[in-house]
Amino acid sequence: MKRDQIRFILIYLATTLFLIACGISGLFNGEGVYPREELEGIIWTLEAMGEQNNPQPTVAGRQVTLQFDFEEGRVHGNGGCNAYSADFEIDGSDVSIGLAMSTLMACFPEELMNQETAFHQTLALAERYDIEGGRLTITTSDNQVMVFSQK
After folding, report:
1. Phi, psi of 110 (to 5 degrees)
2. Which of 18, 22, 31, 40 has its CA 20 to 30 A from that of 90?
3. Taking Cα atoms as reference points, which of 109, 107, 59 lies closest to residue 83?
């Protein structure tokens, strides 16, 4: 009987440690909040984008926006010139966003179109996100960032 009890305790401890190691709280982000609750229904406005240590402010005059729709599994918004949408998946603080489909209007000045192109390319490389102080930061696989504020 003691052998069965010891085996049960060892299995119980191993299972508990495994769940902790795997981060059962991975269903949540680092603050223990469902990502849906902290992302959905908010229109995020891009403030800066670029290298992680030196993101550059967006072009003045047009807002680049991002909104998560968990029902559809899509993000959508305006790239500064064109409306866009893309598939997304979130797992804890990891995020992946598919290639954006967008309308095809031309905008001026040219730097606005360049910014929109860079935004879509950067969005498709999204790897993780963090929300702190009302700001959403999306970091890419090549250490680029997009910093958004709540609209």
Report:
1. -60, -30
2. 18
3. 107
Q: Which pTM was predicted?
A: 0.74
- Which is it for strands 94-97 and 44-51: parallel, antiparallel or unpaired? unpaired
* pLDDT greater at residue 36 or residue 1: 36
Burial level of 134, CB count in 10 A (0-12/13-18/19+)?
Answer: exposed
Instruction: List b or e across 119-130, with b for residues whose CB sees 16 or more CB atoms inside 10 angstroms.
Output: bbebbebbbbbe
What's the token pair of residue 52? 């992680």
User: What b/e sequence results for 47-67 when a residue is b if at least 16 CB atoms lie within 10 Å of its CB, and e otherwise?
Assistant: bbbeeeeebeebbeeebbbbb
Taking CA 116 as the corner, what is the angle to CA 113 and CA 121, rounded to the nearest 5 degrees? 130
